Amino acid sequence: MSGLVWRVSTRWRAAIDRAVTPFGLTHAQYAVMAPLLTLRRSGNRPSQRRLADFTGLEPLYVSKLVRSLEQAGLLTRTPDPDDSRAMLLDPTDHGRDRTERAVAAVRALQHDLTAPLGGVDSPRTRALVEALRALLEEETT
């Protein structure tokens, strides 16, 4: 079973890489920028730590990605006035535009990838997502 999960994961990641490359993003950068936009739309201005918690990625990994995204002009980091150790993140206009276009491409890709299960909103896809979430939750307990 682990080989099957690995193969699906690898195929999915490669497909996302191909989908976001035209927008100048890697899969890893997308995994930070898309959630950052989600948090900003909901009125939150996350710190690197909060973004790491939200994505489930390691804080050190997020920190490295954030630095490279800042150097690329896709986001800005500013000190948190309430916590001198924390940096708050904001997408730049350029970063927001690139990421919004990448999100649209990934959504279209998700429809294609889940078609064998009946599409993104099908009961089979929802059951798969619930099962994967249960496995991730089990890992953290």
Automatic annotation (TrEMBL):
<dbReference type="InterPro" id="IPR036390">
    <property type="entry name" value="WH_DNA-bd_sf"/>
</dbReference>
<dbReference type="Pfam" id="PF01047">
    <property type="entry name" value="MarR"/>
</dbReference>
<keyword id="KW-0238">DNA-binding</keyword>
<dbReference type="InterPro" id="IPR036388">
    <property type="entry name" value="WH-like_DNA-bd_sf"/>
</dbReference>
<dbReference type="GO" id="GO:0003677">
    <property type="term" value="F:DNA binding"/>
</dbReference>
<dbReference type="InterPro" id="IPR039422">
    <property type="entry name" value="MarR/SlyA-like"/>
</dbReference>
<protein>
    <submittedName>
        <fullName>Transcriptional regulator, MarR family</fullName>
    </submittedName>
</protein>
<dbReference type="GO" id="GO:0003700">
    <property type="term" value="F:DNA-binding transcription factor activity"/>
</dbReference>
<dbReference type="GO" id="GO:0006950">
    <property type="term" value="P:response to stress"/>
</dbReference>
<dbReference type="InterPro" id="IPR000835">
    <property type="entry name" value="HTH_MarR-typ"/>
</dbReference>
<feature type="domain" description="HTH marR-type">
    <location>
        <begin position="1"/>
        <end position="137"/>
    </location>
</feature>
<keyword id="KW-0805">Transcription regulation</keyword>
<keyword id="KW-0804">Transcription</keyword>
